[in-house]
């Protein structure tokens, strides 16, 4: 895709992506456009059979909110291609975190609203009704069409989520991961809405509100989870892998390499996740200052950059002793800090 290329090579700022990541980025953009197309169809389909069901209303709103992550990803992908400038010396990688934050806040706000709205319906014992509809000369209960719409829209998001999850791992993209994670859980929303509609048909008026509450809590859960991750990234918590399940091993790998050099006595790094790539400051204590030549330092930096494609914005700082004020948890083993 030409909008992802600069002189034939996809970039994140001045970081030239390896072929594997270039292919993953193009695939991710393609799948996000496919996701938007599917969401457009499913949102219209659900709207046409919405009726008076609270559960269907919540499912429809969740479909609308599902537009945010793919749109955020596509916008951020364009922004981060810009090279660093005087006003943005670190580049525009934080656009990923901003997009993540915007999506998360929208999920939290709407999830909270739907919980209140559905809770009021349950407390006031609202009895929703679902009428009939004329189709092909016959009268059908609209609830069957609602259930059918939910079943038809339950499967594709799961497939999309599985595909995008693999791409998120390759690209170290937390917005894409959040989108994939939500997609994989969409079948539960569809199932809850279908059960709520069937409950109305069986005379269980409360089933619809309970289903709506379950969907609302699911939206809020997604929002809180993503909000925590987005704020963590923007406030410079330690760098983690794409799904925030553990610290990224790059810091430890770099420290191990630097400590293996004959002229280095000690080495520790602090790693900041800029969005896709890392900003790394490595402090090294030379065994003898006369051996810490500029050539050796530059050679060590180049070797560190070769460890992983995400290592581009890196500096090596020779020091007399490791600065504890810059390296919290210095006495602990490993390159990552608490």
Automatic annotation (TrEMBL):
InterPro entries: Cation_efflux_TM, Cation_efflux_TMD_sf, CDF_Transporter. Coiled coil: none annotated. Keywords: Membrane, Transmembrane, Transmembrane helix, Transport. The keyword Membrane applies. The chain crosses the membrane at residues 33-52, 64-80, 92-116, 141-163, 184-207. It comes from Arthrobacter pigmenti. GO terms for cellular component: membrane. Pfam families: Cation_efflux. It is found in: Membrane. It comes from the Bacteria. This is Divalent metal cation (Fe/Co/Zn/Cd) transporter. GO terms for molecular function: monoatomic cation transmembrane transporter activity. It is a multi-pass membrane protein. Residues 40-230 form the Cation efflux protein transmembrane domain. Its main location: membrane.
